[in-house]
Amino acid sequence: MRLPRYAILGLAVIVIILIGLGIVATASYKTRIYTEDLGGQPHNGKYELAVKIIINYGYFGGKQPLSQGVVYLYRDGVFYNWTFTNSSGVAVFYVPPGNYTVLSTTLKIKTNVIVNSNEEVIFDYAYLVSS
């Protein structure tokens, strides 16, 4: 039994639309690193630098905080401190104002941040496409 020509054409159009939607969805799924200024005044000359690590497992896998992840902090290129993330995926440092590099050794990603108020650095890690 042969399918009518219009049925084959209709199936081809549906396949092309699904491929296009998949390409758009895949292009928007990536690791994002951003900072948020939390404001506030220093306490004893130090600001709070919070590092939040979220593992994004994709559209159907959801997001989970990374607990017990190792976070290193460098100040002006020199090692400054390290700690683990808590069960909410947050590591907290109290630092004087300056230029810092935040490194997640677990995920092997880093970013630079200038601390002149309370700051939060957020690693939103796309697990399925990262290497």
- Structural class by SSE content: alpha+beta
Radius of gyration: 22 Å
How much of the sequence is in beta strands?
A: over 45%
Report low-confidence residues grouped into runs of 5 or more.
none
Order of helices and strands: HEEEEEEEEE
Overall outline = elongated
Mean pLDDT across all amino acids: 87
In CATH terms, what is the fold-level topology of the largest domain?
A: Immunoglobulin-like
Question: Could you characterize the architecture of this molecule?
Answer:
There is one protein chain. With 131 residues, the chain is an alpha+beta fold. The chain folds into two domains: 1-30; 31-126, Sandwich (Immunoglobulin-like), CATH 2.60.40.10. Helices cover 18% and strands 48% of the residues. The chain contains one helix and nine strands. The chain has one helix spanning 5-28; strands at 32-39, 47-56, 63-65, 70-75, 78-84, 90-95, 98-104, 109-115, 118-126. The strands form two sheets. Strands 1, 2, 3, 6 and 9 form a five-stranded mixed beta sheet that branches. Strands 5-4-7-8 form a four-stranded antiparallel beta sheet, with no helix packed on it. The longest helix has 24 residues, at 5-28. The chain starts with a helix and ends in a 5-residue tail after the last strand.
